[in-house]
């Protein structure tokens, strides 16, 4: 007997909910895949949980939850005129008015009520539907999707704020500024000139990293006088909002609502002025045409687009290129490919996921892996109508046909993954640009935590290795400190450049041009070339430690520190320290090339441990001594870091862990270890002192919770005696044991120690397979691109653009990924 569809719906009304304002409603993307309303089968929204599923996965949800009623959303592309013009961007933005025009097509949306398991369908809207269903569907369609709330599909530079100094700006003198013919009052510069809005002084702007730009006279004038606002001459037109006003005390471009009055004071009729200079934001946009942008992104190259399994692009969610570039390289490794793709199906991950799979890292990593590696979403489409484009080279079949230059793919938007991975990190949850290194370390930490119950499945271990530091005291005795790490961070010794003669000639030409008031063109610039071997040698080279407290001499002395690796990981990540601190503690990017060979051998960097005849320093200071064999933090370094806003304890740890080598080294350590679980743990100066600091009653309390006494003591030491923090520490360190710690001061030999026991290890020969390059002046701005060696050739992954690389920028990398060569 055939069941009436309406009666079937009425019999399941108890499984239909009307969403409340606090409910998260998913309607743009499947929770388990990257299917959307625009996919062939559309999207099914569970009308009880408001989770969305693609046509291949909705039945899994029905089997798991028993929820039978779904709102089916399908979008079909509208026909649009082919000659629709593209708008010229005026903002550093994507997907918003004034930003880059995505030329997004328009879609027509249809809705139906579908009842599983037989997929009985009823049209919507319909007055025949029960009121509860109509109200529920209306609420779902009117609500802003959770995907959009969590990840806005547009990015823009920070909106300019009204300056606090503009409202009551003091203006002095009787200077009359001419409408043209400007020149710096202190040099011969005629470009990049700024008018101080207090006294009318016309001075040149800041000097760029390559010597171009101004001579810093405008900012120096502010430092001398304190006059806060300046406007860039050449950006003033009848459209005053477009003028570039800079506030020195606020250190940002700002809005001056009284700019017309402030200009009139100096006799400037803004309505008659023509635009002759780029604003700061426009100069950032112009970076798209400079050498670094063009070379790293391979702009202008007739690159061949690639499609198929493992060649899926990632949509830029708004300054998310740091994540896209990193994840493309990570999922090119066998360890992550096996864990989340080969050995785990989407259904398997969904069955073990909690009620809301959007908040489960394992589920979202599996979703991302299948999206990137299956090839399902890596299909060519015509730029204009979205229909299948003519054939291009298919990596799966290996058959080559003439490439279609205009062929492109839409890519997949990793919104849910970003939401999950950023949940525990306030910075990554924002729409601001981030450091790819910090993201990689945070990501690896989260993966390790999520696999804590089954460490044998943990793919992050393939990046993990042990580092051993040997400290030779002037007494002749030694100490060994061990730690675990995922990246090898390398300083760049510029004095080891191989093109010193070319550099000297270039610097001479640059000095001559600057004396004539001319700038050096980008094609004339010569950058130092430093071999990677020199960076690796610098890491292993002996380093002096001043004010090292020797437990043998019972006094401070100078010691020598050398470092080596106790194990060689499956995948070695090298971080090039291109960002250094210049005068005034301003981060500066080194403009340098690193000559990186395809094959490296780091066998000589293996630590040898305690050698015959070596005598260890006493492990702890005598009673009454507050100091240990660990170096004491240099107060000057700590003070300088603290003045930049860092936590005092974190600054002390950074100084100690870099052996007081300097502010730059401490800063790099700090940025790489901000997410360490023990970053807030107090510094311990010797075993006896640490043991005495533990309150026995606190130990007893933790033991009463069911924890072992030695684990309780370790947790209390790491959390400063705070029981609540100690409990969190235990849960965050499930593999902790009384015999293990991240850093130890013990002897070492050829047998594995608890610090590096169980880590992957092998030979020291590695092959380069991945590069993450950065374009821009700092890690907080610019763009990241990945180049990956796949199937014997280099491929560029630039957000959704995936193409064969013609000239991979091997000498311009920020992060280099190497795979160990077996045998």
UniProtKB/TrEMBL annotation:
Annotated source species: Hibiscus sabdariffa (roselle)
Record's keyword annotation contains Repressor: no
Function: Recognizes and hydrolyzes the peptide bond at the C-terminal Gly of ubiquitin. Involved in the processing of poly-ubiquitin precursors as well as that of ubiquitinated proteins.
Catalytic activity field: Thiol-dependent hydrolysis of ester, thioester, amide, peptide and isopeptide bonds formed by the C-terminal Gly of ubiquitin (a 76-residue protein attached to proteins as an intracellular targeting signal)
Annotated region (Disordered), positions in chain: 380-409
PROSITE patterns: UBA, USP_1, USP_2, USP_3, ZF_UBP
Pfam families according to UniProt: UBA, UCH, zf-UBP, zf-UBP_var
Family: Belongs to the peptidase C19 family.
Coiled-coil positions: none
Keywords: Hydrolase, Metal-binding, Protease, Repeat, Thiol protease, Ubl conjugation pathway, Zinc, Zinc-finger
This protein's name: Ubiquitin carboxyl-terminal hydrolase
Class of this enzyme: hydrolase
Taxonomic superkingdom: Eukaryota
USP domain segment(s): 312-821
